[in-house]
Amino acid sequence: MAVSDSPPPLPQAVGYAVVLGLGIVFALAMNVTTWIQARFSKYKPNSASEFSAASRSLKTGLVVAGIVSSWTWSLTLLQSATQSYEMGVSGGWWYAVGGTLQIAIFSVIASKVKMNANRATTFPEVAYARFGTAGHLSFLWCGLICNAIVSSCILLGGGAVVSTLTGMNEYAALFLIPMGVAVYVATGGLRATFISDATHTFFLLAILLYFCFEVFCVSDVIGSPRKLSELLEAVAKTTPVDGNYQGSYLTFRSRPGAIFAVQSIITGFGLVMCDQGYWSRAIASNPATTARAYFLGGFAWFSIPFACGTALGLTARALETQPDFPVLSSTDVSAGLAAVEAVNYVLGTAGSVLMLLLIFLSVTSALSGEMIATSTLLSYDVYRHYFRPRATSKQIVDTSRIFIVFWGVFAGSLASVFKLAGITLGWLFYFLGVATASGVFPIALTFLWKDLNREGAVAGSILGMFLALIVWLATARAVGGEITVDTLSNQWASFAGGATAIISGGVLSITLSLLRPANFDWEKTRNLTVVKEVEIDEDRDGSSFSSNGVEKKSDPLIIDVDSLPRSTNDAAGILDAKLDMTVLEKTFKRYTLIFGFLALIITIIIPVPLGAAPYVFSPRFFAGIVGVMFIWLLFAAFLVVILPILESRRALWKIILQVVKRRY
User: Fold this and answer.
1) Contact in structure between 146 and 435 (CB atoms under 8 Å)
2) Less packed terminus of the chain by CB within 10 Å, N or C?
3) Quick one: angle between helices 440-448 and 89-116, nearest 10?
4) CA–CA separation, 500 vs 506, rounded Å?
5) Which residues does UniProt call coiled coil (predicted)?
6) Distance between CA atoms of 247 and 241, rounded to whole angstroms?
7) Is there a contact between 267 and 98 (Cβ–Cβ < 8 Å)?
8) Residue 550 belongs to what H/E stretch?
9) For residues 100 and 606, is the Cβ–Cβ distance under 8 A?
10) Is 546 helix (H, G, I), strand (E, B) or coil?
11) Which element (helix H / strand E) includes 536?
């Protein structure tokens, strides 16, 4: 029976209960947490610095949790399983590599962010300081395009799963899911999203570990790695993978796997560089821990798509040997439903409930990061920059809250348009690299290379994007004979478009800059001013003073934090403390070497010999891979769950004592 003809395993009321009920409960819990933070800690969510950048004070564990959570959206869970379902064991591996490399390399870039633009709030702000309005608008465009596509991906994946499992109207889910998220994000700001990230990811990893134990240790249908490998050998005889060695699902010698490896890496680079969410986390973290947090975050995140691909994607394919397993159409597979049907079959109703919770948690956690990131872009780079240059901290926060709600409605509307047009989660994944990869070199070099000039930055990011779109459309027509939704998602069309984007962006930005080097003075970005945290009063002669009598600086946009008493700005200590450039430079070099070593291992040392050899995994070898998967998942759980508690134990204990003291 086809999935579309099967009745949903859960009643529709469960879908609304989770989307509305659980969303409201969690929103209330996060608001209580925000209230406790405001009442018993020095961090106040009504401060612009706290709301948009968490006062730049977050420790390693909480940043790791935020990175893992923000990168673990429905696409991660569903598409990684889909890749393994379609091309075998290499699919989940290459999906994980594509994301991990980009997060890990951000550990290198994050060091330069702290060195060269510690006072920045968004990456377009730095573009304005270096390249003026043209550069600012170009980078802002890249950021908003990326956030729009990512938000739609998150909602489409979540909506498809909720609808399949409960029969809930998918369009209703697309609008109701972001509303609950907007409630706690608008109240608590960036720190609230980090706290929610840690909470969501704890349950997410617990559910994923349970799925893996059930599949490999308990299930009557599978129950062991050996049994799964036997079923995959059987299904390869009836449904072999075109381009894989012997058509096997247990080999790295895979032509579609190799093509997808390049696509995944290009898409990951474009997403991480253009998504303000990652820059927000780099800015929000303590300078001493930024690079370490991003590296550990990437390392921990690898385990999630690797596990989803190995445990859920391969299981879905193996279960096709069972006569009562649902028939998955190409639309079902593209929507990411292979993993959903595998869990339903193995675990029954309990599996359906847990999968619903898993996807809901990933959607709300990732969407919260997108909301705060986009609201930061809109409030700082649109409202404050072009409409209200003298905006105060309170005005910035109020505007950010409005934009959070606006983005929830906009994302739901855009996802609905995509749904109506027949565009699925898989389609958007392949398109993401085409639309964003042109910004990789211009944005990264803005923080890394003093000779990047305005022409290179603008041409690389914008012209590179248009060239990629042209090549994408032309290749779809050449391969498919016409331009349709289906031909545009062709692997070769997406590959050509993504490769054009990243190559043209790099060639244009570097070549134009070499012809006329900018020789930029980093002191200009190191001395960026920040939003004032006190109200400004105008006296009769036009001069401006803060509420405590500090004269306003001559800058017409903002008042420099240097002019304010330390008590008026929670972030002042971190902003004003003299950064040790020698230490940051050593950190940059150290993590450059560490990143290079990691990249060499996961892209060359492990997969290349496996792909070069005409080898199908033996049951024992496959069992070893499963063992590594479990160890990696448990280590990720330690980094995301235990480490934040250990690092914040004194602050948590202090808050508990204050609450108890006030109560009794």
Assistant:
1) yes
2) C
3) 40
4) 10
5) none
6) 4
7) yes
8) none
9) no
10) strand
11) strand 536-538
Residue with tokens 């108890």: 660
Q: What is the number of residues in the chain?
A: 664
Distance CA 562, CA 555 (A): 13
Instruction: Judge contact between 197 and 66, C-beta under 8 A.
Output: yes
Q: Cα separation of 141 and 155, whole Å?
A: 21
| Residue 213: C-alpha distances to residues 218, 344, 629, 633, 638 (Å) | 7, 15, 11, 12, 18
**DSSP 3-state of 240:** coil
Residue type, 90: S
Which amino acid belongs to residue 99? G
Q: Which residues 6+ apart lie within 8 Å of 541 measured at CB?
A: none
Q: Please tell me the distance from the alpha carbon of residue 558 to that of residue 390, in angstroms, as a whole number.
A: 6
- Contact by Cβ (8 Å): 306, 93: yes
- Token look-up 């070549």 returns 511
Instruction: Give the Å distances, CA to CA, from 335 to 82, 357, 535.
Output: 9, 18, 50
Distances (CA, A) of 436 to 103, 170, 468, 498: 16, 27, 10, 8
Cα gap 97→262, rounded to integer Å = 10
Inter-CA distances, 97 with 177, 252, 381, 443, 599, Å: 29, 14, 32, 21, 8
Instruction: Give the relative orientation of helices 290-307 and 619-637 as an angle to the nearest 10 degrees.
Output: 140
8 Å CB contact between 190 and 178: no
Q: Which of 528, 531, 559 is closest to 546 using CA atoms?
A: 559
- To which H or E segment does residue 65 belong? helix 60-71
Neighbouring-strand partners of residue 396: none
Task: Report pLDDT for 6.
Answer: 74
**Six token digits for residue 211:** 């799925």
The answer to whether the beta carbons of residues 110 and 282 sit under 8 Å apart is yes
Residue given tokens 């429905």 in the structure block: 74
Query: Amino acid letter at 57?
Result: S
Q: Which tokens is 109 given?
A: 């870039």
pTM: 0.82
The amino acid sitting at 448 is: L
Give φ, ψ of 533 to 5 degrees. Answer: -105, 10
Side chain identity, residue 149: I
Regions in the chain scoring below 70 on pLDDT: 1-5, 23, 26-27, 29-59, 184, 186-197, 281-288, 529-580, 648-664
Residue type, 307: A
Both tokens of residue 29?
Answer: 């819990």
Q: What angle do CA 317, 480, 264 make, to 5 degrees?
A: 50
Extract the tokens encoding 279. 């820059």
Terminal Cα-to-Cα distance of the chain (whole angstroms): 62
List pLDDT tens digits, range 25-80: 766 766 666 666 666 555 554 544 444 444 444 567 777 887 787 778 788 899 99
Q: One-letter amino acid identity for 348?
A: G
Q: Choose among 644, 599, 615: nearest CA to 265.
A: 599
CA–CA distance, 588 with 584 (Å, rounded to integer): 6
Determine the pLDDT at residue 555. 38
Which residue, among 153, 180, 201, has the nearest Cα to 16 in the 3D structure?
Answer: 180
Residue 552 gets which letter from DSSP?
A: P
| Cα 485 to Cα 218: distance, rounded to the nearest angstrom | 41
CB contact at 8 A, 453 and 517: yes
